[in-house]
Amino acid sequence: MKVLLVDDEVELVSAMAERLGFRDVDADWTDNGESALAMADKTAYDVAVLDMKMPRLSGLELMERLAEKHPDMKFIFLSGHGSEADFKAGCAAGCNYLIKPIQLEDLVALIRKVAA
């Protein structure tokens, strides 16, 4: 299983990737949507974990662009600015949504669930 993590909080996303690796989840990371699109063109990811609020390209916009090119990719949304509107938008797009701060075990369980 290959996972793409996208979050504009570099320290968070890099630490998350490292810790997922300790749990046998192979994760690459980036801090922006444009880079994520380029990475997905070069590597087949099973799951993308996307920050809902990012500069220039939101998690929802990124999901739409990734899903168009990679229809088998699954998505999980993360948000540190959880709101009812974001939650509903995330649910409408797949209902895989965690509010920061997250528990890594919750993320691992959700990654394994959506990838199954």
From TrEMBL:
Modified residues (4-aspartylphosphate): 51
Protein name: Response regulator
Alphabetical list of Pfam families matching this protein: Response_reg
InterPro entries in alphabetical order: CheY-like_superfamily, Sig_transdc_resp-reg_receiver, WalR-like
UniProt keyword annotations, A-Z: DNA-binding, Phosphoprotein, Two-component regulatory system
Chain ranges of the Response regulatory domain: 2-115
